[in-house]
Amino acid sequence: MRYLSNSAEETEALGRKLASHFKGGEVISLRGSLGAGKTVLAKGIARELGITESIVSPTFTLVQEYDGRLKMYHLDLYRLSGEDEFESMGGEEYLYHDGITLLEWSEKIESMLPDETIFISITINDDQSRNIDIEGGSDEYSSL
Question: Do 70 and 101 contact (CB within 8 A), yes or no?
C-alpha cells in the first residue's frame, strides 16, 4: 500500500495509525535515504505506544529502548558489517519478543528477518513530499 505524506505531521500521524494496530512482536524495517522521515515515523509509532521520551535515531548507540504500552526497540544497523556482527551482539533477541522492533538499514540482515516483517520504504519526491510504501505483515496494515 502506498501513502503520500506532505509533511512531517502527516508522516507522524501515519506512524500513530500503524501503531494503533500493534499487539506486540512486530518487526518493522524502515527504509529510506538520510532525511527521508524514518525517525519521524518512529516518533509517531512511539507516541501511539504511550512513549513520552524524545525519539532520536540510534546511529551512534545502535539500540535505543523505550518503555510504553509495549516496549519499543529502535535499531540502526548502518555501522554493522552484516549478519555475523548482528548475531554476535545478540541482535536476534530483538527479532523475537513481545515488544516492537524498528530496524533501520535492515538490508544488512535481510535473511534473518522474520517472515512477518513489515517493510516500510520512504522516498522523497521532487516537491519534498514522501511516498511511504508498506508491505508485509498482516493484511490489516494494507487497509489503513
Answer: no
Per the structure, the complete domain to which residue 21 belongs is given by 2-138
Query: With 0-12 CB in 10 A as exposed, 13-18 as middle and 19+ as buried, what is 143?
Result: exposed
Position 95 in a domain: yes
Structure-block grid coordinates of residue 33: 535515504
Contact indicator for 63, 71 with CB cutoff of 8 Å? no
Amino acid in the structure at residue 121: S
Q: pLDDT tens for residues 29-71?
A: 999 998 999 999 999 999 999 999 999 877 677 899 999 999 9
CATH number, domain containing residue 29: 3.40.50.300
Distance CA 98, CA 77 (A): 21
